[in-house]
Design a protein that fits this description.
The chain has about 300 residues and is α/β, with parallel strands linked by helices. Helices cover about 40% and strands about 15% of the residues. The chain has a single domain (about 5-309), classed as Histone deacetylase domain (Arginase, Chain A), CATH 3.40.800. It has helices at about 25-35, 50-55, 60-70, 90-110, 140-150, 170-175, 215-235, 260-275, 290-309; strands at about 5, 45, 80, 85, 115-120, 155-160, 180-185, 205-210, 240-245, 280-285. The strands form two sheets. An eight-stranded parallel β-sheet has the order 2-1-5-10-9-6-7-8, sandwiched between helices. Strands 3-4 form a two-stranded antiparallel ribbon. The protein binds zinc ion.
């Protein structure tokens, strides 16, 4: 069965400013990489906009409406915090990023596609229920997980987050929800400061902090040792991956030394768990990754495994 690639040109029009690392060129680099011949087999479609109902399964209505109400004039920006900045195109980009997560979930849960990758921005895993943060406006992975449960009757969804930063937002959204497991490896100490191993939610949160300088072997050991067994034991009906590639050795925002082959290895392990418990269903969402070359190569390695594993 096929792998779906969802994206939308509106995601290029979220422009947080010239010096901002979360820039439109990131998505251009990813899309260029996925234009190579290896990826001719991807089924490509445009990301729809998420609805208020879908977003309000995760965020309070007044938060969603406040974010969508921020529409700066052309060329102007509105900072929500030190590094989360909205431009004229940001609201639609955020709706497309969350909408891609929903549409990917629909396609995979209906059995039309086995896997889906959403090449979208802004990312989502730092967005808390009522607070934008860390380049993120809506918690896209949690929107996908809640949609799988509400619209498709999934009993258990696992959110897998290998972005180098802890997904404080995703964790905050699900830490009292036993139907959703959240498993993350991340550099610690590092932004945003959360993600210690003792943060366990209602027994559904699994954090594996990694020291600055940790390499691919340490990354694989964290997943093999604690995180993957927890995900496997949870027996999820669907895996939602927060696929950030800023744990890569070349990334300028953190100090881990993970490589493309490590991302490919973890992707294959996750596909194996999905096969055992969830008919192979995997939805993957682009999160961080700020060295354009490393981001392009790592995304290609990840999607290649999604297509074949
Ligand atoms: Zn990150």
């Amino acid at each position: 069965m096929s792998t779906l690639l969802l994206t939308h040109r509106a995601c290029l029009l979220h422009e947080p400013g010239e010096e901002h690392p979360e820039c439109p060129d990131r998505l251009r680099a990813v899309l260029k990489a996925l234009d190579q011949e290896d990826f001719a087999g991807l089924i490509r479609d445009e990301a729809p906009q998420a609805t208020l109902e879908q977003l309000c399964r995760v965020h309070p209505r007044n938060y969603v409406e406040a974010i969508l109400g921020i529409r700066p004039a052309a060329g102007e920006t509105v900072p929500l915090d030190g590094d989360t900045i909205m431009s004229q195109g940001s609201a639609e980009a955020a709706l497309r990023a969350a909408g891609a997560a929903v549409a990917a979930t629909d396609a995979v849960m209906r059995g039309e596609m086995r896997r889906a990758f959403c090449a979208t921005r802004p990312p989502g895993h730092h967005a808390e229920p009522s607070r934008p943060m860390g380049f993120c406006l809506f918690a896209n992975a949690v929107v996908a997980a809640r949609h799988a449960i509400a619209a498709h009757g999934a009993a258990r969804v696992a959110i897998i987050d290998f972005d180098v930063h802890h997904g404080n937002g995703s964790q905050a959204c699900v830490e009292r929800d036993p139907a959703i497991l959240y498993a993350s490896s991340h550099q610690w100490p590092c932004y945003p400061g959360t993600g210690e191993a003792r943060e366990k939610g209602v027994g559904n949160i699994f954090n594996a902090p990694l020291s600055p300088g940790a390499d691919g072997a340490a990354f694989r050991a964290a997943w093999s040792g604690t995180l993957l067994p927890a995900v496997d034991a949870f027996a999820p009906d669907l895996l939602v991956i927060s696929a950030g590639f800023d744990a890569h050795a070349r990334d300028p925002l953190a100090q881990l030394r993970v490589r493309e082959a490590d991302f490919a290895w973890l992707t294959a392990e996750l596909c194996g768990i999905a096969e055992r418990h969830g008919r192979g269903r995997v939805v993957s969402l682009l999160e961080g990754g700020y060295d354009l070359e490393a981001l392009a190569h790592s995304t290609a390695a990840h999607v290649r495994v999604l297509m074949r594993a």
